[in-house]
Amino acid sequence: MSAKRHVVIHPDLPATAAAVAARLVTAILDAQAARGEASIVLTGGTLGIASLKAVADSPALGSVDWSRVNFYWGDERFVESGSPDRNAVQAEVLLGVLDAHGLDRGRVHAMGAADDFRTPEEAAAAYAHLLEREASDEGTAGSLPVFDVLMLGMGPDSHVASLFPDHAGAAAGGATVIGVHDSPKPPPLRVSLTFEAINTARAVWLVVAGADKAPAAGVALGQEPVARERVPASGVSGTQGTWWLMDAAAAALV
Ligand SMILES: O=C1O[C@H](COP(=O)(O)O)[C@@H](O)[C@H](O)[C@H]1O
């Protein structure tokens, strides 16, 4: 039996970002109360980054012990480490603020950049090893740490992380992290978790806003079965549940 899917609709992007931020703080507090630490997989994208900014601006920021939060990424653009295209650089809107709130930078696990690795595949292999080490350190069997929350944006074409429709990455099997070439959305080189890795997370949150996302969301959440290789957003789920956190424009065809 698959875990339950939830669809939560908010009026607009700012309201959705505020709601995602409130959920994230609560999820971290709950995970720390249950297991001592929390592991969160971050996403890039418009709403993903707006949600991190909303956490940074939240009055609840001080209620979290940020020294016991592990951060990972679901995908990354394979560009120079300082490039504003990098999801990890964009996430500094929150991480930079958390430095003054006890953030342990040793727990911030960004994917490799083009000045550190020759190819996206090398960066992917290094990230897969890092994930294996983290899993082993926390005593988790298998090659991945337990992700409490894994956040994903969704593109208008239904891509999640850097798994694009009808593209090699979406069909990749057997790996947890892959290099992506010829991404239909620039930049062309990327690193991404695979479906196999994403779907181990306790909770998967798809954070989706904007009218341009409505057709893809309608198909991904529709009654008709669709292949995840064709509609990647339809192929992600958390072991304890999947939450679509959306604004009304993106949910217009759901
Ligand atoms: O390229 C990417 O795009 C998606 C969605 O971005 P959006 O701006 O359309 O919301 C994002 O989720 C992914 O992490 C990123 O690398």
TrEMBL record:
EC number(s) recorded for this UniProt protein: 3.1.1.31
Gene3D superfamilies membership: 3.40.50.1360
Keyword Hydrolase: yes
Taxonomy, superkingdom: Bacteria
Gene Ontology terms for molecular function: 6-phosphogluconolactonase activity
Pfam families assigned: Glucosamine_iso
InterPro entries to which the protein is assigned, alphabetical: 6-phosphogluconolactonase_DevB, 6PGL, Glc/Gal-6P_isomerase, NagB/RpiA_transferase-like
Claim: Nuclease is one of the keywords in the record: no
Residue ranges of domain Glucosamine/galactosamine-6-phosphate isomerase in the record: 14-242
Keyword set, alphabetical order: Hydrolase
Pathways involved: Carbohydrate degradation; pentose phosphate pathway; D-ribulose 5-phosphate from D-glucose 6-phosphate (oxidative stage): step 2/3
Enzyme class: hydrolase
Reactions catalysed according to its record: 6-phospho-D-glucono-1,5-lactone + H2O = 6-phospho-D-gluconate + H(+)
Main function: Hydrolysis of 6-phosphogluconolactone to 6-phosphogluconate.
Family membership: Belongs to the glucosamine/galactosamine-6-phosphate isomerase family. 6-phosphogluconolactonase subfamily.
NCBIfam families tied to this protein: pgl (TIGR01198)
Name the record gives this protein: 6-phosphogluconolactonase
Organism in which the protein naturally occurs: Paeniglutamicibacter psychrophenolicus
Source organism phylogeny: Bacteria, Bacillati, Actinomycetota, Actinomycetes, Micrococcales
Gene that produces this protein: pgl
